Amino acid sequence: MSWFLWLGSAPSLLLVGLVGRELGLGVGSQVVQAVTCSRWETSGVTGLFQDGDVVIGGLFSLFYKPPAMDHDFTQLPPYKPCTRLQGLPLQYIYAMVFALEEINESGTLLPGVKLGYHIHDSCGLSFWALQAALSLVGGKGSSCSLSAAITNYSAAYGEESGERTGDQSVPLIIGGDSPNTAQILSRLLRPLSVPLISYTASCPCLSDRSQFPNFFRTMPSDIYQVRAIAQLAIRLNWTWIGAVVAKNSYGLISIKIFQEETRGAGVCLAFVETLRRENIVSDATRAALAIQASTAKVILIFTWYTDVRELFEQLDARNVTDRHFLASEAWSTSGDLLQNPSSSKVASSVLGVAIRSSVIPGFEKYLRNLSPSHRPKDRFLREFWENVFLCHLGDTAPANKLLQKDPLPPCSGTESLQTVQNLLTDTSQVRVTYNVYLAVYAVAHALHRLLLCPDIKSLPRNSSSTCSIPKHIKPMEVLQHLMKVNFTTPQGEMFYFDGADVPAKYDLVNWQKTLGGKLKLVLIGRVDGYDLQMNESAIQWSTGSNQVPVSVCSESCRPGTRVATRKGEPLCCFDCLPCTEGEISNITGSPNCEPCPPEFWSNSDRTACVPRQLDFLSFNETLGITLTTVAVFGVTVTTTVFVVFLYYRQTPMVRANNSELSFLLLLSLKLCFLCSLVFIGRPSVWSCRFQQAAFGISFVLCISCLQVKTMVVLAAFRSARPGAEALMKWFGPGQQRGSVCFFTSIQSTGSSA
């Protein structure tokens, strides 16, 4: 039965066939036999090596042009190194070397222990990183397969082996610059318990300890930078934002986290465009058209700086120059973009999150003192030297001979980096370089804890504690002590691992134009975990302006109106409807209108409740005087008639006129005249409640009396007819009183309700 291990990605593949019989693996077997597969030629392997008591592995993407290979699987492909040296990754390498030399010279950290290094170039490809990692954990002379690496690993770190044999294997690797490479390397090294410390891999997925228990990083997880960007958008009241992201885990996970962090804060995405490296021109064109057509003035970008450069060039071609950008750490500090003419035209302003910058004392001096004469075996420095000074170091073939039509002149020996300004010597913005520096110190402190011998006198008598020595260090021991690392950096900051992650620390940067029209990077704040501190007055949004730009789908509803969402559109897009009479809204962007109290009314702007305006009939007015005179006259006349009827109540005329109903009628008329006086003068609560009920009851009482009197008269005339004598018994005094009371009670009940 055969097994196959597929490592890497097209077009670079590593296909290793492991045959079960050749492995010699049986139940309970602990012996791994050698396999027939041998590694590619390594005569020209690219690396930087320094032996020591403990050797630390390093993987850096120093060269960016991989060789062309023909994978026909008919013969072993020849070894070809990568080309085109990069200056910034070379600074990362020397930051690692500088930190190791600094620790070796320290009298307090790992005293008496010399740290070495084996540094390889990964060429920015997972395949090359895998090959280099297998070489590091298996020794320089190991074969290409994983089984052979395990063989050498077991020989180097097996319990029965007291010392390493052959070439030194590393117990730890600093590398894995991309999330994909870091995931592949971590899974590859997991069976060996070899820790991997990355200085740039920021994917949140790498925080999963169940999948990557041997992974650590000095770069914060992307979750924290996205949270910081979300806080910026909320703090600056940007509610309508366009997004352009890389179509990979970095971009897609980041925009998902951004949406989660801004949910409930009123922030909406106008559009989300994705960019793919292999189709960057067409994708950048599509994204530029979306930005041009959108009303969003703020654009959020999560992608690599080379993609942003193409996007800016497409925007420049369309004369889109009034947008503001929120930048992720992948491009916010890019020197290439800062120097690109399209950037100064397109970007009205850029506000971004950047990896925390720090100062490494003595590092600039160390870089400027580098010289091939002091490091004759340093191939990286030799090639860099020839590229910078355009000369040929005599004892080797020119590193860039393929790029030169004519042979390079020999170097004079007087060349120096003291006055050279390039990516290697520029230490004004030490960011990723500082992450590498921290990774080395984290390893050193873990080794210090591991190799620290306790005071024998302070140990219990029966204690079995022993001191570890460099020759007996196992990767598992380094892994365990890395989890417990907690120290103060030379710059005075606390450093520790929380699982795989370090405390999130970022810089907030702003691109600002100088008087000469060039762009410069200005520090305007810092982020520590969830705490964001920003000096808004230091931000330059456009040339000479500190006014915060506005990016909204709909302007905020002014006081006196309410928000009315549009059907089928994001919540950030809405209409503003005025409040109705008697309702107000006194804040900007109010979702609804509030009714006024009973004694108040809304003003004309519907922004405040004001006391109701009282319009009433005054006794001093002409109409009031007239109505009062008529009412008094009516009361007087009615009272006079009432007195006359009362005086002559025993006379036949009064008695024949139904005296009871007449007295009630005169009383109700007098009350009606008196009730009219209640409607004149300043109203009050009691008068408003009383006047309606009193007049209604009085008026109904008056009408009821008239109605009953009329019915009695009609009944009297009808009863005179033959056969209708019994009609009058239905209209006796009792029925008359009952009818009046019945009709009046109906009105009284209605008035009380």
From TrEMBL:
Specify the signal sequence span.
1-20
Name the membrane topology term: Multi-pass membrane protein
What's a Pfam family this protein contains? ANF_receptor
One GO cellular component assignment for this chain's record is: plasma membrane
Q: Where in the cell is it found?
A: Cell membrane
The G-protein coupled receptors family 3 profile domain covers 623-723
Q: Name one GO molecular function term.
A: G protein-coupled receptor activity
Known InterPro entries for this protein?
A: ANF_lig-bd_rcpt, GPCR_3_9-Cys_dom, GPCR_3_C, GPCR_3_Ca_sens_rcpt-rel
Q: Which UniProt keywords apply?
A: Cell membrane, G-protein coupled receptor, Glycoprotein, Membrane, Receptor, Signal, Transducer, Transmembrane, Transmembrane helix
Principal location: membrane
The record lists the membrane-crossing segments as 623-648, 660-681, 693-717
Task: Report the sequence similarity comment from the record.
Answer: Belongs to the G-protein coupled receptor 3 family.
Query: Under what name is this protein listed?
Result: Extracellular calcium-sensing receptor-like
Give the organism the record lists.
Solea senegalensis (Senegalese sole)
